[in-house]
Amino acid sequence: MKFNIEGKLRKMPAVKNYRLPLFEAVSNSIQSIQLRQKNNPNEKDFSGKVSVYVKFKAGTKNLGKSEGIVADGGIIDSFRIVDNGEGFTEENFESFDTMDTLLKQAAFACKGEGRFLWLKSFQDVRIQSVFKKENELFERNFSFDKSGSFVHQDEPPKAVPLAKGLETTVTLSGIVDAVANKKPIELNDIAEALLSHFILDLLSEGAPEIFVIEEGTNSKVVVNDKLRDCVIGSSMETERKVKGISFKLTGQKLKKGAIRSKIGGVYWSAGKRIVEVVKLSEQVQELSEQLSDPDTGEVFSYVAAVSSSFLDDCVDSSRTKIMFPKDSEIIQDSWIPSEKDIKEAVATMVREQLSDSLKEIRSRGKQKLVDYVENVGPEFREYLNADPDLYISPSASEKEVRDFLTVNFAEFEVKQNHKVDELLKIDWDASIDPKKEIEELQKTISPVNLHSLSKFASKRKFYVDLLDKVCRYKDSIGKEHYYEEALHSLIYPKGKDSTDQNIQHNLWLIDESLAFHHYLASDKEFKVMKCVNSESGEAPDIMSMRLYGDNDADHVAEFVFVEFKRPGRKNYGSQQDPIKQILDYVKELRKSTVNSRDGIQLNSEHCPIYYYLICDVDESLKDCLENEHDFDPNALHDHFYGFKAKLKVFIEVLTLTALRREAKERNRALLAAAGLRS
Known about the structure:
Number of helices: 18
Number of domains: 4
Mean pLDDT: 84
Number of strands: 28
Largest sheet: 9 strands, mixed
Structural class: alpha+beta
């Protein structure tokens, strides 16, 4: 069977930067060192070393000086990776020359694909390796290209002196334009990329020293030193099993800002190499915040890698993605864990390793919610108590907190309503304790009901405050009040009736029952009212009609009128008697034909009528009410009651002071019921 390398390279994903081919070369070096350590246990003093020599293209120096080293950056031209691992032995060379080799799959989860990244990224690949065979050293030289037999060894390996030592050099020359860095970079950038990718290896015992060196100048960065400079304490290891498969989380705290690259986060790994980020934004939301030690206040970043034989098997050939089984491939009780199952286990392990820091962040986030509820959104108080796991970023804005609570409460409300539906379906037979069932129902629905009630009360408070405003002076110097039109419009828009669309009213400020009407007209003449057949041009401020029952044989209705007088009005003369004005309106209604909105004639002669007169009561009006009309006051003298038997109308004079006080009292009762006021 023939094999076409060009065809294979075309099918491979595009290489977007220098890092992937470099990582493959360094990974091979680290594995070679680990094999030497394993196969030669008697080499007690052996210390693994990997040197990455970088050659920059001429004329691309950016003269950048990194702290701690003198290194000019530039555009990469080539790499030379040198290690002192076991090298290209006969077995390793045969494996390298074999397509889809499985030699290192068991030990390192290798896919046999990495070396082809070199061919996609560089024009020339050459390898020189000194290896050991039967206590002798041999040197092998070969090139690697896209021709038919892609490994070219001009001559067999030749013996070399033992003093030369084991050493393998991989030279990657002539980087292709698509892979070359577009902006000049420095040795520090390359070193930090290697640190990020190989942090698992670097944290392990016996890790090799990795150097990044500029060809020609010998400027050098030691990757291990960068790690040593930024680690806080020892690495942490936690293990959990998911459906019988073991997963290990290796975590490390790093000094914040010790290195320029951001290497924090939790990563999937395969073969001890970082693959991709584990997205834990839902499971561990606190990770998006700045981490610090609650005792010392020291700020740190956290990097961790998840490793498992399961992930080794699931990594794709490019080693850039974990290919988790699809949900359709996983059946219930299957031994195969889903990505969701594994992430939940990882989240638990992260919380164990960062318990103190995450607890402190969560506490500040919860306090953010508590402060908002106390000062801005009291309607969410019971919900906050019902869901103790609620969390938002401590740095969230007030708008973000509001949106968060609104969205989450909506989901909570749906779930609670479904739960209530299920509880109501339960038959209360002899085995059921009704008291316990009622308590459970109340406990379930309480946060939802109290949210609605407190939001309702909070909204009403705005209109109570507005009522106060329209009853004050509009000109405090001249002691001039607002006209009655302001008060009237607050209660119900003038010139409208209940057939108009989108009417916003506050009839509850006078009487809650006014909202339950079948027809209401505001500042409309009798002759244009849709339920009154009259030719009168008189227009009461508000007239409301409510049917006692659509199926009532007598079709009886109840009428409520409201009359407003300007706040602060005084000196009512005999010609300005408001009770006479009210009685004229009642007489007009009594002599008119009244119909329901669907045309059924109503018994207007005997319909009960209730009339509110809302005004400030001075001595002149008080004298008129008590002496001329025989009205009785309440104990506070801010209500006056009278009944005109001939017209069968009950009249209540309600002072503006009483109107404001009682509106506030009703709203306080709502707030108290919602648990917002004592």
